[in-house]
Design goal:
Structural class: mainly beta
Strand content: over 45%
Number of helices: 0
Strand order of the largest sheet: 1-2-3-5-4
Radius of gyration: 12 Å
Largest sheet: 5 strands, mixed, barrel
Distance between the termini: 17 Å
Shape: globular
Length: 79
Amino acid sequence: MIATVQKVSGDTLTLEILEARQARPDVAIGPAVGTIEAVSRGLLDPALAGRRIEAVISIVGDTLASRWLISEIRPLPDR
């Protein structure tokens, strides 16, 4: 997924998704566009705010609650 980071707060990013593709053929694709909040397993660098990134997001949870988990975050060069 490629997204613009709108906001960083501790371990949570607000992302505007620009492009999405399947990470693996056996896993369904998530949101193709829109704004979501994703949580990391660790604290995030506030300097990511305003940057375009490439990352993997996956949904975790059960039928009662779920959230987007972000990993493999890679800042992209400015255009």
